[in-house]
Amino acid sequence: MxxxxxxxxxxxxxVFILSFAAQSAMAQCESTAWENASYSVCxxxxxxxxxxLFLDDPDGTVxxxxxxxxxxxxxxxxxxxxxxNAGMYHPDYRPVGxxxxxGVEKARLNTRNGPGNFHLKPNGVFYVTRTxxxxxxxxxxxxxRADVRYATQSGPMLVINGRLHPRIQEEGTxxxxxxxxxxxxxxxxxxxxxxxPVTFYDFATFFRDKIGCSxxxxxxxxxxxxxxxxxxxxxxWRPMGPIVGVVEKKKG
Length: 252
Hints:
This protein has one domain. Helices cover about 20% and strands about 40% of the residues. The chain has four helices and 17 strands. It has helices spanning about 1-20, 65-75, 140, 200-210, and strands at about 30-35, 35-45, 50-55, 80-85, 100, 105, 125-130, 135, 150-155, 155-160, 165, 180-185, 190-195, 215-220, 225-230, 235, 245-250.
């Protein structure tokens, strides 16, 4: 069974890479179905796209919305081509766990025990370096920390080295709109959001079995939002805390 699953993931990765190569350099965004639910998915190649995490503007004011972030980037001659809410936050919009923006640690790694999804361990970190990006459980993050430019911590992990989080069970009944990020075959970084309420099991198996991700991290539920102009999507939930975005230089 393990060999069959590995071959399947390789085949899935090959299909996605070929599809991605035929697309614009910006983003390959699409809607797809899995187990009677619909998802919106945006795929980037690790190290090839300018993936960043955002919280505050230069004055220290939380961006709070895709519009505010997009406007700020426009003023700097840059264009926001994709964005998504990127982790849990306190009432003041400050991150619950680790948050690194442009090499500056704005919140520390949170390894405490507690209630809620964030503390359903193992939780994990999505990180970006100068050469790529990835997803790793929080306990293993320290060894990869040296050259990290951006990072956000959330929880729980959905998929860990090809296996579902041990506490995610098929019998789970809680359904919510959910969003997350996966490090997937072929160097793909995949951001996904459910277009309708789904269980953790549905969401985790979507990343592992449909998309082909060896590691995936839950970012949040209920407030889940996506900005993806290439598929005419602009969710307007606000205010929000951390945001992950993909940026390009404006042409002309």
